[in-house]
Amino acid sequence: MAAVVTPLHLPWPHRVLLAALVGASAVAASHWQWFWKQDEAVYDAYVGGWEYTPDARLLIVAIDDNSLQQLGQWPWPRGTHARLLDRLTDARAERVVLDLVLSEADRQDSSQDAELAAAIRRNGHVVLPVVAAPASGPRMAEELLPIPLIAANAASLGHTDIEVDSDGVARGLFLTAGIGSPHWPALGLALANPPGPLPGLRDDRPGLDSPYQWRRDHYVRVRYAGPPERFPQVSYVDVLQGEVDPDVLRGRLILVGMTASGIAPRLLTPTTRERWMSGSEYQANVASMLLDDKVIAPLPPAWQSALTGVLVALCCLLLTLPRAWLSGMLALPSTLLLSFVVLRAGNLWFAPAAALTGMLAVILAWALWRVSAWRRQANSDALTGLGNRLRFEQTLQAEHDAGRRSGRPLTLVLIDVDHFKRHNDEFGHQAGDNVLRRIAQELHAHARRPRDMAARFGGDEFALILPDTTPEGALQVVQDLVARAQALEIPAGRGATTHITVTVGVFTRVPTANTEPRHFFEGADAALYQAKAAGRNGYAVDDGGPG
After folding, report:
1. What CA–CA distance (Å, rounded) separates 272 from 48?
2. Bridge partners of 365?
3. Which of 25, 227, 318, 433 has an alpha carbon within 20 to 30 A of 164's alpha carbon?
4. Three-state SS for 343?
5. Tens-place pLDDT, residues 95-126
6. Closest Cα partner for 84 from 66, 108, 70, 63?
């Protein structure tokens, strides 16, 4: 007899194996980042409003629209930048990033280069950018450094390679990068110049060292201080003309960069999709994040994959325990909460989408399994596992209709256990249940074909529905059933065994438009009573023949 199998009934080794398989699938999804868009949507929701007060030393000297209007068309003579640097030097600014592309010499007036180089030397704390030129066709990747005269006087250089995700949002960066090896710090890192080892994910893959490739390392997520215009700004032209109080500039970490509309690079960030952020403010966010120790570090890939697999496997195991629905309800929000807490409390980013998708698939499969089991249970007898009265009636109706269409015979067999009440009274209800289970096993064994059905529709009353079965075929089934019942030795408690017999009524007809399922039931019932009147432990057949 086939029992209803549910996750709760699986042996523990099978449960563990199933959990390991679904966990491995989740690990693959995490490793290959199949759900990165969903991960980034969760990340943006978590960090979008996570503001903090930026480091007070940071100040942007903005090459804004007002400066362009007053100083003329861009680019300006490099002597102009030299005069600005002298203003910052006189005000004793702590460090200055001059975020300008200076990779070519001034073709009209070489003295401009010398003037800017001298101003950089006088300041002594100027950081200049290294621009990455990506490979294109036969052209190899390049580092565009300031011209040697200017670069030689800089305190340090920093790369301006900004990591933009496939959806156009800048969420992270590599703190070091360079051709051949990641030897240049990010521009914001060079401005902050924090002590101690660098945070971020290391790229230790072998075989990547090449003198011709742009290499990047120490990947981190940028913790933005807030939406655009979070950092204080002063206009370039106001500083140049001495209209900014030197006290505003003293001791500051200053980033001189382009913010003018139509010229400045524009970035989307998780803080807002409605306003763009300038490259200068992006670098200021990087510097502030490093100065205030607010770097968001992604979990290492091995930990990310392992945690994803463990969470999904654990969810799968929990669904095999009692109150599994509670585990399913808690699994998804718990995973989101874990990701949120780890981010907010530990500045670590655990991408939850692969785990959530794996859990959702497991929960959906469990729910479908449970619905299927409930449907089977609703149509099954709880004690024997055979079809119950409802399923018996539905199947008899369906097979009657099928026989009427096909012109094939339908046989209904009704079975009673002989003297069952006496057996129950003598040996007890548990022994009686054993009798019913053993008879049910025999009935199930005789319902061999896919459309055959065995059912229990009363206390000790059973039935067999045998579609496409002739009287001769039905007779063979019934004779074997009666003989097998006679041979049963059923435990009756206290070491005793008992024998049991059955009485069977058989009714076979070809369904027609004039017959109904009740006619088959009434015919089989009449044959059953005929067999009982003949002394039980036998059968009677009504096949419509001469009698």
Report:
1. 7
2. none
3. 25
4. helix
5. 999 999 999 998 888 899 999 999 999 999 99
6. 63
Distance, CA of 221 to CA of 174 (rounded, Å):
9
Q: Where are the domains of the chain?
A: 17-30+301-378, 91-297, 389-542
**For the whole model, what pTM was predicted?**
0.76
Please tell us whether the domain made up of 389-542 is placed in CATH 3.30.70.270.
yes
Tokens matching residue 10: 């699986």
What's the CA gap between 438 and 377, in Å, rounded? Answer: 19
CB 448 within 8 A of CB 467: no
Instruction: Using alpha carbons, select from 188, 215, 193 the residue that is nearest to residue 204.
Output: 215
**pLDDT given at position 209:** 60
180: left (phi over 0), alpha (psi -120 to 50) or beta: left
Angle, nearest 10°, between helix axes 78-90 and 110-123?
20
CA–CA gap between residue 450 and residue 463 (Å, rounded): 16
Give CA–CA dist 308/350, Å, rounded: 9
Average pLDDT over residues 275-304: 95
State the Cα angle at 19 between 17 and 20, rounded to 5°: 65
Which residues are 98's β-sheet partners?
Answer: 256
Alpha helices in 447-505 (DSSP H): 471-487
β-pairing, 461-467 vs 410-417, is: antiparallel
C-beta of residue 402 within 8 angstroms of C-beta of residue 469: no
For 525-547, what is the mean pLDDT? Answer: 87
